[in-house]
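I am still learning, so would you mind making up any protein sequence you like and the tokens describing how it folds?
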Amino acid sequence: LLYHTFLTYEGLNQWFLNKAISRYDGVKEPKSKAGIRRIPIIPALQAILPELDMGELLFKNSRGGIPNSHWISRNWKSFIAAMAETEEQLIGQGKLPIMREALPPLEPYDLRHTFCTDLERAGVPINVASQLMGHADIKITASIYTHTDDAVFAEAGEKLSRLTDIVDMPESPYLGTKTGKSKKRKTGT
């Protein structure tokens, strides 16, 4: 989730984001109009979140108000500790391999990168991902937040292959037969 954000429940399995929690305490406006957005809540996440009234904050301090930077820092450290404990348990159960070297410390902003990469892997169009991320320019989403890997390229090749399977390809001396098999050229030797 967007930890440093002013998320309020909007019903219909979505959150509304229209402000950010400043790291220097208080609330600030988003950098651009694109920062004001609705974010869908997947059912698996909805099931573990507390029930909230319309407009109620997701992240709030013990008095129900806007959290400050100390609250965010304290809760982030608790989250990291819980992740480390879970990782140790999974390694002990043989469900996770032991890391050869320690990873750099996880920061809340790293989860934005992961979220956008997950959107890409789920097949969400980049223009929709850009809106969900709150980017004013789709170039930001394309250049910074997506991490294209070999699996994405392989999937693109498979999609193109399926497309050519349904298209009636004409005969071509350059491309070969309709099945795509190349014809051997006769050389003039």
Remarks:
- The radius of gyration is 24 Å.
- Confidence is low (pLDDT under 50) at residues 180-185.
- The chain has six helices and four strands.
